[in-house]
Every structure is written in structure tokens, then in C-alpha cells.
């Protein structure tokens, strides 16, 4: 182990006091570890949830196909009644067919017990299932935002004051309506709210599941049995006894009130207390809200409005930083890159949408499959060869010269292929270095947290030595290696001013 005093002496120009430096990095370390640990600890939970979802879907498919519970539900028309009788006959025919196959093999007694027991089990489970089934994870035409949060697909991008206001409205048994200009981040606010609920930020809403609908998808969803739009009733039925544990978000909710849409009156009744939708968040613009009040005032009175405005510079940069931290592989940013992204995106534009979009384009430039110089040259020569070959069909003279030129270019392509293979291996090495950088940062910040745990100004030489090695040597060495090797290959690896300007075009 290298003596701590020697390391401190070697880096004193950049880090005069290692303990002070580590303690100053504590908040940064806590945020980084919280974000990345959430990201990397999801895999097992996601797998278990998918297995559970598969089991539930399988049970529900069997019950929908062979169950009897819906025979006792309210009818939706003559066609539905006729369908029920036909299904009873179908089940009887199926039982007869199975019996004809099983009886010769097992005998009448055993076959009767097996078939009868199976049918009774399905019938009993069909009747009991609405009372014992778990909370639904899917609803028609909906996206499960809570599941996206659990999968690590959502980064919080909402102003805390807005999220607190939404939570306050819902806990008062009212419905919230998010109002703001287009692309200001209303849908992102709803997603951030789903993240806050799943994180447990609001005690009264903890554990609730958040679904989002595009209201356009719910309009004109007529069924063949009733001829009317029953999708909201289907959603209510699927929610069942878990209605109070589910938050529904309706994007473009004003469309439910347009042109006297049938769904508007249905939703109006469901929004009433005891109607079936106890927690609803609507999303619309200010102009659309005025139109909604004019065309369907009782509908608008069911909501308390929450104004969503542009995020400030500091709030936007914080959101951009969270996006960077949630990226699967560590991103290298030039000093002040996030501030530049905000400035270049335009302060008057809808924020954080414009800044987030510019950052995503920058990240895309780095993440997409980039060709090495040899690969690009090889592609150009192959295009040239294809062009020459096409000329052979229309040339009667000088074909020999064209063949010779093609032969020469083919030799160059072969050489470039060998060079491209080497460069591809180097690019794979850069990708592995980015993964290594993520591990180094995680270890460095873990060390910071351990050092912060020291109650008094007492040095743990071993931990301080580890911190300095990671902070002042290994972290910088890996970063420099990635930047230098990328520059040598002519590929993009750092979000800097040049890349931001390219992304703006």
C-alpha cells in the first residue's frame, strides 16, 4: 500500500487537503450513488415482476376463456345475451370432446373425477377471482408509469412545487388538471409525479399505481356486443376493488368534451365521488381548458388546476444532470456543458423540453454506432466500385480501364478492411473503458461516503489512500484514455461545445 502522506504530497497542488475534499464531495457522492444504485438494482425486481405478470395473465386468459363469472354480470344488449348462451354450449361441447378422449384411457370414474374437478375449480376460481386477484398491472389503452419507474425508464423532470400541489389536490379527494403551453413539460410532470409516488414522497399516496392514457385512444372504442363505447366501464371493472389504489392520468383530456363525445358524459359520472375513478390527473393547455369550460362546464368543475410553467435555469440544469446520471453508461461532459445546452436551447422556449431534447441529441451522437475512419473510407470506395460496375453496362469502349480501376480499388478495400478490424477492436476497448469509468466513479463515491462517516477529524489512512488513488489517479487516467483514444479514431466521446453546435443543426 502506498503511504497516504506520500500520495497527499504528490497531489497537494490539486488537492491540498484530501479529507476536506472528500467531505465536500459528500452530497455529490450521495446523489450519484442513490441514482446509480437505483438503476443497477432493478434487474432482479424487474424479472420477478415479469414472472408474476406472466402468471397473472395466464390465469386471467384461462378464466376469460373458460370462466363463468361473467355469466352473472349485467348484460350489455341482446347480442351479449346470445353470446353467453353460445359460450355455454361451446363449453359443454368441449367437455364432451375431452371426455371422449380421456375416458378410454383412464376409465369413466377417474376421467369423471379429473374433468369434473377441473371444471369445478375453474368455475370456483372464476367467481372468486375478482375478490382475490392482485392489483391490475395493465389497463386497456394505458401505459403503466409505475412499472416504467420500477424498470428505471423514468427520470424525474418536474418542479417540486407542482408535484406537491398535485399531491395536495389528490389527498383532498379532488382531481388535478395540469395546464400549460405545449411542450412545457406537462406529461413529464405527470411522469415525475409517478416517480415521486413510487419513491414514497407522499405518505397518503404511497404504494399507488399510476397509469396514463391518451384520451384520443379512448374515443370511439365501440364493442361488437353493445355497439357503444364501454372502454371506461371496462377500465373501472378491471380496477375492481383497487380503485382507490390507482391514479389515472388522461393526456389531452379536453378531447373527451369535444363534439359531444359520448365518453365525456361517462367520464363525468366516474369522476364523481364513489363513481369509480377517485384519483384522476388531467393534462391540457390553457386554450383547451377554456374550450372545455365552454363546451362542458360541469366536467371542468370536477378539477382543481395546476399551472405548469417553464422551469428556471437552475431547475432545468438539475433535470439535465439527472438525465446524465441515469444514462446506462457514464457520459463525459466538458466543463459547463449543461449550462451551454440550456443557453443554446433558448431561454424563451418551453423548458425543460427544449434543453432535454438537445441533450438527448448530443447523447445520441455519442451512443449511436460510429464508424471508424477506415470504415468510412471503405464505404466510400465500395460505393465507387458499385458506380464503376454500373458503368460497364453502358460502356462499349475502355472497359479494360474500368476493370483495372475496380481491381485497384478492391485491393484498397481489402487493406482498409484489415485496418477497420483493428480500429473496431480499439472502439470496443473504449466502450469497455466507459464501463470501467462507471465502476471507478462508484468506488470513489463509496469511499467518500465512508470518509464522511468519520465523526471527528480523524484520518483513516487506508480509506483516504483509496480515495486519493481513485480521485486523483485512476479516474483521471481512465477519462484521459477515453478522450485521447476517441480523438485518435475520430469518434465522439465527450459532450462539448462542438458537439452541442452539431446537435443544434
Properties at a glance:
single chain; extended; six-stranded mixed beta sheet; 21 helices; alpha/beta; 505 residues; 8 strands; 64% helix; 3 domains; Rossmann fold; two-stranded parallel ribbon; 7% strand
Q: In percent terms, what proportion of residues is strand?
A: 5-15%
Radius of gyration: 31 Å
The H-level CATH homologous superfamily of the largest domain, spelled out, is P-loop containing nucleotide triphosphate hydrolases
Share of helix among residues? 55-70%
What is the N-to-C succession of helices and strands?
A: HHHHHHEHHEHEHHEHEHHEHEHHHHHEH
H/I helix tally: 21
Could you say how many structural domains there are in total?
Answer: 3
Number of strands: 8
Distance between the termini: 51 Å
Please specify the SSE layout and strand pairing.
Layout: H1 4-10, H2 18-24, H3 26-40, H4 42-66, H5 78-106, H6 108-132, E1 142-144, H7 145-150, H8 160-171, E2 175-179, H9 186-199, E3 209-214, H10 215-218, H11 231-239, E4 246-251, H12 262-271, E5 280-284, H13 286-295, H14 297-300, E6 303-307, H15 313-325, E7 332-333, H16 337-345, H17 353-367, H18 373-392, H19 399-452, H20 461-489, E8 494-495, H21 497-504
Parallel strand pairs: 2-5, 2-6, 3-4, 4-5, 7-8
Antiparallel strand pairs: 1-3
Textual characterization of the structure:
With about 500 residues, the chain is α/β, with parallel strands linked by helices. The chain has 3 domains: about 150 residues; about 90 residues, no CATH class; about 170 residues, Rossmann fold, CATH 3.40.50.300. It contains 21 helices and 8 strands. The strands form 2 sheets. A 6-stranded mixed sheet has the order 1-3-4-5-2-6. A two-stranded parallel sheet has the order 7-8. Helix 3 packs across helix 19. The longest helix is centred in the C-terminal third of the chain and has 54 residues. The protein is extended, with a radius of gyration of 31 Å.
Amino acid at each position: 500500500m502506498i503511504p497516504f502522506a506520500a500520495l497527499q504530497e504528490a497531489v497537494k497542488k490539486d488537492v491540498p487537503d484530501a479529507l476536506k475534499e472528500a467531505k465536500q464531495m459528500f452530497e455529490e457522492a450521495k446523489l450519484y450513488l442513490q441514482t446509480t444504485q437505483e438503476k443497477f438494482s432493478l434487474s432482479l425486481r424487474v424479472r420477478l415482476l415479469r414472472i408474476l405478470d406472466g402468471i397473472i395473465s395466464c390465469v386471467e386468459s384461462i378464466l376469460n376463456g373458460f370462466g363463468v363469472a361473467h355469466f352473472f354480470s349485467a348484460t350489455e344488449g341482446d347480442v351479449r345475451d346470445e353470446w353467453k348462451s353460445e359460450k355455454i354450449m361451446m363449453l359443454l361441447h368441449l367437455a364432451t370432446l375431452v371426455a371422449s378422449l380421456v375416458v378410454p384411457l383412464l376409465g369413466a370414474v377417474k376421467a369423471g373425477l379429473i374433468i369434473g374437478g377441473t371444471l369445478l375449480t375453474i368455475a370456483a376460481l372464476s367467481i372468486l377471482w375478482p375478490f382475490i386477484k392482485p392489483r391490475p398491472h395493465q389497463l386497456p389503452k394505458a401505459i403503466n408509469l409505475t412499472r416504467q419507474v420500477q424498470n428505471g425508464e423514468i427520470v424525474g423532470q418536474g418542479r417540486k412545487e407542482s408535484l406537491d400541489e398535485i399531491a395536495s389536490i389528490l389527498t383532498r379527494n379532488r382531481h388535478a388538471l395540469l395546464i400549460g403551453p405545449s411542450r412545457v413539460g406537462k406529461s413529464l410532470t405527470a411522469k415525475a409525479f409517478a416517480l415521486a409516488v413510487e419513491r414514497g414522497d407522499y405518505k397518503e399516496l404511497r404504494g399507488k399505481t399510476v397509469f396514463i392514457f391518451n384520451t384520443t385512444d379512448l374515443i370511439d372504442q365501440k364493442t361488437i356486443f353493445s355497439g357503444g363505447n364501454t372502454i371506461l366501464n371496462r377500465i373501472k371493472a378491471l380496477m375492481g376493488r383497487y380503485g382507490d389504489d390507482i391514479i389515472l392520468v388522461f393526456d389531452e383530456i379536453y378531447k373527451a368534451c369535444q363534439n359531444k363525445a359520448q365518453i365525456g358524459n361517462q367520464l363525468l359520472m366516474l369522476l364523481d365521488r364513489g363513481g369509480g375513478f377517485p384519483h384522476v390527473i388531467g393534462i391540457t393547455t390553457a386554450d383547451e381548458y377554456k374550450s372545455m369550460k365552454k363546451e362542458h362546464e360541469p366536467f371542468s368543475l370536477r378539477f382543481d388546476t395546476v399551472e405548469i410553467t417553464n422551469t428556471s435555469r437552475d431547475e432545468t440544469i438539475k433535470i439535465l444532470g439527472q438525465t446524465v446520471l441515469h444514462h446506462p453508461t457514464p457520459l463525459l461532459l466538458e466543463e459547463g456543458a449543461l449550462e451551454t445546452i440550456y443557453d443554446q436551447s433558448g431561454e424563451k422556449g418551453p423548458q425543460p423540453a427544449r434543453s432535454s431534447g438537445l441533450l438527448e441529441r448530443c447523447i445520441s451522437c455519442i451512443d449511436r454506432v460510429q464508424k471508424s475512419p477506415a470504415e468510412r473510407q471503405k464505404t466510400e470506395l465500395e460505393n465507387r466500385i458499385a458506380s464503376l460496375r454500373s458503368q460497364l453496362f453502358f460502356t462499349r469502349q475502355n472497359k479494360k480501364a474500368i476493370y483495372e480501376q475496380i481491381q485497384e480499388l478492391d485491393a484498397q478495400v481489402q487493406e482498409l478492411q484489415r485496418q477497420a478490424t483493428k480500429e473496431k477492436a480499439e472502439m470496443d476497448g473504449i466502450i469497455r473503458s466507459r464501463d470501467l469509468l462507471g465502476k471507478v466513479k462508484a468506488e470513489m463515491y463509496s469511499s467518500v461516503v465512508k470518509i464522511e462517516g468519520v465523526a471527528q477529524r480523524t484520518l483513516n489512512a487506508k480509506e483516504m489512500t483509496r480515495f486519493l488513488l481513485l480521485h486523483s489517479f485512476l479516474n483521471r487516467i481512465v477519462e484521459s484514455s477515453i478522450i485521447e483514444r476517441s480523438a485518435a479514431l475520430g469518434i465522439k466521446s465527450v459532450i462539448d461545445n462542438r458537439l452541442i453546435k452539431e446537435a443544434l443543426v
